[in-house]
Design a protein that fits this description.
Layout (H helix, E strand, L loop, with lengths): L35 E3 L9 H17 L3 E4 L2 E2 L13 E2 L35 E2 H7 L5 E5 H8 L8 H14 L4 E5 L8
Parallel strand pairs: 1-2, 1-7, 2-5, 6-7
Antiparallel strand pairs: 3-4
Length: 191
Amino acid sequence: MDQLPQHNPNLKWPEGRNGRCETHNATALPNICVRYLNFPGHSRGAGWNNIVREQLLTAYLAYLSRRAYVVVPYIASQHPPFGGTIDLHVPTAAFTWSPLTGAPFPGSRGYKPTDPPDEEVVPRSVSEDFYHSICPQSRRVKLDVGEVCKELGLDVNQDDVKVIAHAWAKKLLEMEDSCIDIVNHPLFDYM
C-alpha cells in the first residue's frame, strides 16, 4: 500500500505534506484541506467479518467528512482465533481493492481521466505508516467516542448508522484540525 501515489508527501494540494490546512489559504477554500481520520485499535480482538464491517463504515465516514481514511493492516495475533500466532501483518489490500484500501473514491484524483476541481477533491485512503509520518502524536486531536456522542446527542448502541455517520461527518467537516484519532470505543458498535 505504501507504493500508492497518495503516499508521496510532495503531491500538490490538497494531498501530500502540504495539503494540511495551515499550509494553504483555508479562508479561500474552507473545510477542504487534506485531513486525516484514524481509528487506532478499534478492531482489535474482533473477528474478520466485524473488522470488514467496521472498516467499511469508518471509511464511509471519512468520505462523508472529506478526510483521508487511515487504513490499518490486519495483524493476525490481535484477532481470534489467532491470538497465539506470530505477528503476521496482512495488508487490507490483500482482501479488497477499493476506496477502503487506497483506490480512489468518486471525487478523488485518479477516479476519472480528468481530476475534479481542488475544492471537490475527496482525499484517498492512506496507510497507517504514512499517517504517522505526516501526523506525529503532537499534531493529533483525539476525539473520545463517548464524549462526542454525548455532545451530539447520539447513542452508538441504539441510533441508526446513517444518523451516527452524518452527525459525526458534520462535526468533522467543521473541525480545522488535520489529524483526528477517534478513540476509546468503536463508533459503529457491532457487538
